[in-house]
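I keep forgetting this: the sequence line spells out the residues, with the fold written below as integer tokens. I include a record here:
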Amino acid sequence: MVAIIVGEEGEEQQRFVVPVIYINHPLFMRLLKSAEEEFDFHYQKGPITIPCHVEEFRSIQGLIDRETNNLHHHHHHHLLCFWV
């Protein structure tokens, strides 16, 4: 799990804890890229801050969760095919 802070400048920020698998997801990678462009990661201490509206992040989080759950279920289906 990875702790992140989400929120645009001037709005209340929220802390989220997301699975490490998010880091490789294209949608999350875009969020990280925008954070990198807005903040200098070399000098940031603590959790990564994602400059995104909290509700927008929740929507993205839902998409990623659905995709990873479907992928996880899909892999189990294939594994069961090999059990005889």
Observations:
- The first strand starts at residue 2 and ends at 6.
- The mean pLDDT is 83.
- Helices lie at 26-38, 54-82.
